[in-house]
Amino acid sequence: MKNIKKNTSLNFRCPICSSHKIMQRVSSVKQIWKTEIWVNYCKECKLYFLFPMPSKKQIKSYYENEYYIYNIWVRTLKEYFRYLRCKSQFEYLKANTLSELYENRCNILEVGAGDGMLLDLFNRAPNIHVNGTEYNSKARKIAQNKYNIRLEDKEFSDIEGKYDMILMSHVFEHFVDIKLVLRKTLELLKKDGFLFIELPNSPVITANKREIDAYLRTAHIYNFNIANLELLVKKRGFEVVCSDRFFYTTPIKISIENRKNLGNLLMSGKIEKIAIFPFVILFLINCIFHSTRAFTRLKDKTPWLGTGDTIRLILRKKQ
Ligand SMILES: [Zn+2]
Questions:
Q1: What is the pLDDT of residues 190-241, one digit of tens each?
Q2: CA of 14 to the centre of ligand 1 (A)
Q3: Over 60: is that where the pLDDT of 250 sits?
Q4: What's the CA gap between 86 and 64, in Å, rounded?
Q5: Quick one: which H or E segment has residue 277?
Q6: Is the pTM of this model over 0.85?
Q7: What is the CA(192)–ligand 1 centre distance, in A?
Q8: Domains of the chain with bracketed CATH
């Protein structure tokens, strides 16, 4: 009996900090995987994680079949927002990695590169050689036709070669075995190589239950915050070069509630109230004049701002 109890509790250890202080079934994810999957929460490091984890087959089939059937206007707008995000990521990477990387011959890999929009910004530099993987065949076709970038349909574990920088934009939270992914990343990086991770910032468990449930209704296996993500990578052979939170730039000061509404509208097209439109217009005007400044760095103590509250980390392989 004792053994059974012990095994049961072992199943609910936090995958990052190994704590047993797990709140089980704080939420559930429906209509993404074939069955409903529960979300557990670690009280110690505040990580949300699925339990049980979806199988490899379920995951591959989800990404192969995922595609975006929007009308032309929504598609154009979404593309434009993605472009603004890519520009902002590109500037952030240029500012916080080595300028030599962009001058000397450099090899970059993006994992889950989508249609290749971010890689294209690097590809324009004469000395940068870009590589990428993507499960979705339609996205790979767009990358080839629009940007002339050939992406491979490869599992992360099957990637070979040595890279100066590896990019994972809204990808890392979708992996099941994150420790294996970090170990493989270390193997793929050259000495002093960089890893860039961007992913959404998650709410604390005391946030509004409706907002938490809405936030967790995605294909993310884990939902991180800056502290638990840093804890994970520091234990796994990386040093943190910089870590920041970003949100959509609003040229004037607006309330937390309105920022959340703005994020919801820009990320998922949800209109919570008409009064948000002046802020959307201000956001767009700012983007037209400053396409690299669509996102602003948030102060550490800013409360969680919902969808659009994003974490960026640049890591370096520890010597
Ligand atoms: Zn934990």
A1: 998 999 999 999 999 998 999 999 999 999 999 999 999 999 999 999 999 9
A2: 5
A3: yes
A4: 23
A5: helix 277-289
A6: yes
A7: 29
A8: 2-317 (3.40.50.150)
